[in-house]
Design goal:
With about 350 residues, the protein is of the alpha+beta class. It has four domains: about 1-40 and about 80-145 and about 325-345, Nucleotidyltransferase, domain 5; about 40-75, no CATH class; about 155-190 and about 265-320, Nucleotidyltransferase, domain 5; about 190-260, Alpha-Beta Complex (Actin, Chain A, domain 4). It has helices at about 1-10, 60-65, 85-100, 120-135, 145-150, 190-205, 215-225, 255-260, 260-275, 280-290, 305-310, 325-335; strands at about 15-20, 25-30, 30-40, 40-45, 70-75, 80, 80-85, 110-115, 140-145, 160-165, 170-180, 180-190, 210, 235-240, 245-255, 290-295, 315-320, 345. The strands form five sheets. It has a six-stranded mixed β-sheet with strand order 3-2-1-8-9-18, with helices on both faces. The longest helix has 16 residues, at about 85-100. It starts with a helix and ends in a 5-residue tail after the last strand.
Length: about 350
């Protein structure tokens, strides 16, 4: 087995993967982040056949959302942080592995994949199986809060309380970690996607206007906030009028989008409250001193740190480059798999 492992190591680059609902980010051992693309695949409608020999994946596929003819659809195979379409996820993962590796043959990397802490054993097996069939030599899973904590530079293996809030596309993970283990956690299937949906519903209710998910995401990114802004922002929203059916443009303000986002943001803050309530007193004291760290794409929402701090009274810090925090955490684990084995769960098979 040792000889085989050394043989494959000559050809393969070990990879850490943040297999997210919205984006997949790949970190290669010794190189850092090498790939960050949307978790979207364009397929022939009614089938799992990927278009253009697998090239319609990621960035190219996301450009197709809402713009495809009847025989093509752009699919997001991950939903709420877990696999919703097994076959398409496998093909997407294989494409990303090949692209990150730089060639299409002769490599069987070891993979460290970050997954939500709340997923079931069945969902874990789906990730293991997809990664195995995509060409991995061995697969390790790590809870997203642990990976985010490691990526943010928190001392999660020490006997001290570390609180991490990872707001992704499909899930929000709120966890207190100590000695490499999760002491208490709330896994909430409310995150970036629900914020986009809230913007879509707001445009329907307020303007009788239908906008697509890409426009909703653009609105959230460009003028969305969780806390009042010093300088209000505006943006032109483009969509279709429900009454006339004609194209329409409407200028919207950041204040109304903040109100539209109030419900999902409040749900995230409530999950933080529940986590704090379940935290042992000694670790609560540590969190009181150290505060909490926010990671994930949701950390980029303007004022999210201020909104959480206002409601909890704690110091809130946004991690450096929060979007890649989880993937960078898997990269740190890859550097010393034997020492970090305590925070991992591995597949049984190695080839």
């Amino acid at each position: 087995m040792f000889i085989l492992d050394r043989f494959w190591s000559c050809f393969s680059l070990d990879m850490g993967i943040d297999l997210g609902t919205a984006n997949t980010i790949v970190c290669v051992r010794g190189k850092g982040i090498v790939l960050m693309e949307p978790s979207v695949v364009a397929v022939k409608k009614g089938t799992n056949k990927v278009l253009l020999d697998g090239e319609a994946v990621g960035i190219m596929a996301k450009k197709m959302i809402g713009r495809t003819p009847e025989n093509i659809e752009a699919v997001r195979p991950m939903k709420n942080g877990v696999i919703a379409n097994f076959d398409i996820t496998e093909k997407m993962l294989k494409y990303f592995i090949n692209k990150a590796h730089g060639r299409r043959w002769g490599h069987r990397p070891r993979l460290v994949i970050a997954v939500p802490s709340g997923i079931t054993d069945v969902e874990k097996r789906a990730v293991f199986s997809s990664a195995d069939r995509a060409g991995a030599r061995r697969v390790y899973l790590i809870d997203e809060p642990k990976a985010a904590g490691i990526g943010a530079g928190l001392p999660i293996t020490e006997p001290t309380g570390n609180m991490i809030v990872d707001i992704g596309g499909g899930t929000t993970e709120v966890a207190v970690i100590s000695l490499g283990g999760v002491v208490t956690v709330q896994s909430l299937r409310i995150a970036g996607d629900k914020m986009d949906e809230a913007v879509i519903h707001h445009m329907k209710r307020t303007y009788n206007m239908d906008i697509g998910p890409r426009m909703a995401e653009d609105i959230k990114i460009e003028i969305g906030s969780a806390f009042p802004l010093d300088q209000p922002l505006t943006k032109e929203a483009k969509g279709r009028d429900f009454i006339t059916g004609l194209p329409r443009v409407e200028t919207i303000a950041s204040d109304e989008i903040r109100e539209a986002l109030h419900e999902p943001v409040s749900a995230i803050i409530e999950a933080i409250r529940l986590t704090l309530e379940k935290t042992p007193p000694e670790l609560s004291a540590d969190i009181s001193d150290r505060g909490m760290v926010i990671a994930g794409g949701g950390a980029l929402l303007r004022g999210i740190d201020k909104a959480i701090s206002r409601e909890t009274g704690l110091r809130v810090t946004i991690a450096d480059d929060p979007l890649t925090c989880v993937a960078r955490g898997t990269g740190v684990v890859l550097e010393d798999l034997s020492r970090m084995s305590g925070v991992l769960e591995s597949s049984e098979n190695e080839y």
